[in-house]
């Protein structure tokens, strides 16, 4: 696979780039460090970039009348307008991006786990939700990929994240060309991956590519992008992965022994039962594709949608489907 197009990601500065946390700290992250060679990072700290000092008093999200604001927990000073001023300019100047990696549990950058309160008085949070910066991001980019470094310790979430950002970066390059031929090349390279993700949206993408009507590039690329984001929303089910593997095996099954075929079946069954990660049967089938020189399959992103060097299963998350 060719990974010439690097995903462009916005990332929290405190995740290994700058000591800008509320306590003056920095958090190094092995996964993010490994990513540096394969993506372009745009760093941001909405708190310090909007003028707040380091170190600083803890900020708190206060919800009143179904609206969330950001205040200094010790004084009650409202810094929402200051943050919004920075955020509006930052997002308007941003340009093309493929996703975000933000600091978990942060009142500005928390993706799902920022604590939300009703006042600065002592007491438990009423719920957890999006940080104020993330709320503004999703208002402007409703389909954008946003993850935090905590969730990315989970192998399945990380695998889905990597697949999406590399596929979308490749599409971004095709869209920039405004060329139907490059869009078709992109589509063909991802055919099996798209089938694993969603048969429904895969067929809709097919209909755009193979429509014989006159090609309206703006309309086709915009429609394609809309369906592509929908297709990539959810990680493939293990049954879908198996179905695509079986489709690939059909290309060489008549050229291998019964014992080899049985071994493949046994390996897929182990994956189905959650005993091995998907990479085990995937690599096994890919070995046969290389052996029989099946170029039309070896170039499929399904077998390696992102650089192999980014695959790490030794984390605290769930390894299998």
TrEMBL record:
UniProt xrefs under InterPro entries: 2-thiour_desulf, DUF1722
Domain DUF1722: 192-307
Protein's name in the database: DUF1722 domain-containing protein
């Amino acid at each position: 696979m060719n990974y010439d197009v690097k995903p462009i990601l916005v990332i929290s500065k405190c995740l290994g780039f700058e000591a800008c946390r509320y306590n003056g700290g920095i958090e190094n992250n092995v996964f993010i460090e490994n990513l540096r060679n394969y993506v372009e990072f745009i760093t941001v700290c909405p708190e310090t970039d909007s003028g707040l000092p380091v170190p600083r008093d803890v900020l708190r999200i206060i919800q009143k009348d179904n609206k969330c604001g950001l205040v200094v927990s010790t004084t009650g000073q409202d810094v929402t307008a200051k943050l919004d001023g920075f955020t509006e300019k930052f997002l308007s100047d941003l340009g093309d991006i493929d996703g975000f990696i933000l600091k978990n549990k942060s009142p500005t950058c928390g993706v799902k786990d920022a604590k939300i309160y009703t006042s600065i008085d002592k007491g438990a949070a009423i719920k957890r939700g999006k940080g104020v910066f993330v709320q503004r991001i999703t208002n402007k980019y409703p389909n954008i990929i946003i993850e935090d470094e905590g969730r990315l310790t989970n192998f399945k979430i990380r695998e889905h994240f990597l697949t999406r950002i590399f596929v979308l970066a490749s599409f971004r390059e095709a869209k920039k060309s405004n060329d139907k031929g490059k869009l078709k090349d992109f589509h063909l390279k991802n055919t099996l991956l798209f089938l694993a993700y969603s048969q429904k949206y895969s067929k809709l993408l097919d209909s755009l590519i193979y429509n014989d009507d006159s090609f309206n590039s703006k309309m086709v690329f915009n429609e394609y992008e809309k369906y592509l984001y929908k297709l990539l929303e959810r990680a493939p089910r293990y049954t879908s992965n198996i179905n695509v593997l079986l489709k690939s095996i059909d290309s060489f099954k008549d050229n291998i022994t019964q014992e080899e075929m049985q071994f493949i079946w046994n390996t897929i069954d182990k994956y189905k039962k959650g005993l091995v990660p998907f990479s085990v049967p995937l690599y096994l089938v890919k070995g046969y594709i290389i052996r029989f020189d099946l170029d039309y399959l070896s170039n499929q992103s399904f077998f390696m949608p992102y650089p192999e060097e980014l695959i790490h299963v030794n984390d605290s998350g769930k390894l299998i489907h």
